[in-house]
Amino acid sequence: MITLDARLTMVAELIVPGRKIVDVGTDHGFLPAFMLLSGRSPVAVASDIGEKPLQNAQKTVRKYHLENRLRLVHSDGLAAIAPADAEEIVIAGIGGTLIARVLAATPWLREPGRHLVLQPMSRAEEVRRFLCENGFYIDREAAAADGGRLYGAVSAYWDGRENEHSLGYYHFGELPKNGSHEARRLIEKHAQSLRACRKAILNVERRRRELAGLDEILTYYQSIERTS
User: Fold this and answer.
1) Strand partners, 89
2) pTM, two decimal places
């Protein structure tokens, strides 16, 4: 049996049991293999844009005799995935900007019955903003600590309505409702990052003012030079 690390366990727990899974960017194929071997999913597709990850996933398929249940597909995002194979769509372990691009390039996700489980490694706010502005709603989020890092994951469905939110929501989403220690730590970590960004911007503004002051002084000096 496959044992998942804390990050992938968090992702697995957001997947609705008994449905067809597509794991985008599968790497070794551990997540879909775990879902199949544990009886949580009947069939799965594992996709990746790289040949090496698919070769790694093929080893997992052979080791656990999943040839009839786990299909491997070479695909850029969801481009080569058939909609009929995708009830649970998992995109984990890549940046939020790229996740948003994959979602934007896949129109068939915008229909009832699709469930997205997204685990951005960065820029989670871009994922939340895209979802809310394109007819999806976030029903819950999860957090996990693994190897000294904190990770978050988003569960979302399509309902066709634009869900306008504040900038604060895009940065923290449903994490405050999670209540776990890991979620609180992830919230604080992101807040610290925002504070650091704010401080850097203020420093830039201060330096701009200082530069403007120096320009004014030098302009005055030049006027003195012309009249002397």
Assistant:
1) 22, 116
2) 0.90
